[in-house]
Specification:
By secondary structure, this protein is of the alpha/beta class. Helices cover 40% and strands 15% of the residues. It is globular, with a radius of gyration of 22 Å.
């Protein structure tokens, strides 16, 4: 008898919420010898890269680039506007909101945490009360995560601005768009966001290694009044660079820039409104499948209200250790990698094995999402994990527009 075939050989599919799938065009752009960093093509393309990053962020103001991950962007943003002893308000809806608050503590800030749990969005009335209680305006900034990658919740960033405005509170609104930029609708200027941070490895479709901080005139006024900002984190020379090295405070991330140039071209060729629409349709297809599997089965989406779900990532749970069992099976047998359930249970807690996540951000299309769902269907079936029927048909109807 011939051995059972393993179907994982061939090109794998990394369906985790970052790093996201990298387009072939991005990879090809990066596959080149080291360029000259003092003159020529790379130096000439830099102003256009910065302008096109601001187009994605929907801002007319300023941008700075850092060699580092999203945590670097957190610290860079904080270092420019928060001095030791300053208070920040952190309305957390998952692990990454809490993490940004921890980063603020690390630079000496007084952190006022409002923990809304792991399965619901921020409550604007609670934030409004915290601002109203701050009669002396000790709160210098609100650190709000647009999409928390751990819980997959989508928060109302414009609503936070409206609450600040209604309270007449001068605190800066700082938004983490690391998971959401280029996936979920975000309007920096129109929503009144003062500082926004993001990374290159999710909706921007470039390998991890670069992060970005966008800021407006209000934030720059605060920066101007800071007693000191370290030379490396200071966004002023990076956002006003006249020499190529100033964008990076030294040597550039050369190959990332070639990849980023192509990724931005792809985004603008498709059109940001269409990018958002594509993510919305594909996310709704995933949710339709998950709803069908959940009928008579154990699968549940972490965020119940569809209006509060990100179109970039979906956090899910099964029972017992079935989340880990499913992840292991689809990766080992199909070459399909699902995301771990990050931050949904404490280390050592067996409940961690129930959770997992789906990344559907950046360079994804209809056939990829149907393949992802088909792989999950195969795993649920092979492992005898209880699940409802009709999931693929439900997803196909969404993608087919019926």
């Amino acid at each position: 008898m011939s051995p059972k075939a393993n179907l994982s050989h061939g090109r794998g599919y990394l369906a985790i919420p970052g790093p996201s799938v990298m387009p072939e065009a991005v990879l090809q752009a990066m596959h080149r010898p080291a360029p000259n960093i003092y003159a020529g093509e790379l130096v000439d393309m830099m102003p256009g890269i910065m302008d096109d990053l601001k187009r994605v962020a929907r801002t007319q103001h300023y941008a700075a680039i850092y060699i580092g991950n999203g945590h670097a962007a957190w610290e860079a943003a904080l270092a420019n506007v928060i001095a030791p002893g300053d208070r920040v308000l952190v309305p957390a809806t998952g692990r990454f909101g809490i993490g940004w608050g921890e980063m603020a503590e690390g630079i000496g800030a007084d952190v006022q945490l409002i923990d809304f749990g792991k399965s619901s969005p921020m409550d604007l009335e609670v934030i409004a009360q915290a601002l109203d209680d701050d009669k002396d305006h000790k709160i210098k900034a609100v650190l709000a995560v647009h999409v928390d990658t751990s819980s997959s919740v989508l928060n109302d960033i414009k609503g936070v601005h409206d609450v600040l405005d209604a309270a007449g509170h001068p605190a800066l609104l700082m938004a983490d768009c690391i998971a959401s930029l280029g996936c979920d609708r975000f309007e920096m200027d129109d929503w009144g966001v003062d500082v926004m941070v993001t990374g290159c490895q999710k909706g921007l479709m470039v390998p991890p290694g670069c992060s970005f901080v966008f800021f407006n005139d209000r934030a720059q006024t605060v920066r101007d009044a800071m007693p000191r900002v370290s030379r490396y984190w200071d966004w002023v020379p990076r956002s006003t660079a006249t020499e190529f090295w100033q964008y990076f405070n030294g040597t550039a991330p050369t190959h990332h820039l070639y990849g980023l140039r192509v990724a931005l071209d792809m985004i603008h060729a498709e059109g940001i409104e269409q990018v958002w629409a594509r993510h919305t349709v594909l996310a709704n297809a995933i949710w339709a499948a998950c709803d069908a599997w959940g009928v008579g089965g154990d699968l549940r989406m972490n965020i119940v209200d569809p209006a509060c779900r990100s179109t970039a990532v979906t956090s899910l749970r099964l029972n017992g250790n079935d989340g880990t069992r499913l992840r292991d099976w689809v990766e080992g047998q199909l070459g399909l990698t699902l995301g771990i359930g990050l931050g949904m249970a404490e280390p050592g807690d067996p409940a961690r094995d129930a959770y997992f996540r789906l990344g559907h951000m950046g360079h994804v299309n209809g056939q990829m999402i149907m393949g992802l769902l088909g792989g999950m269907q195969a795993g649920l079936t092979a492992l005898d994990i209880p699940h409802g029927s009709g999931a693929l048909e439900a997803a196909a109807k969404v993608i087919g527009g019926r």
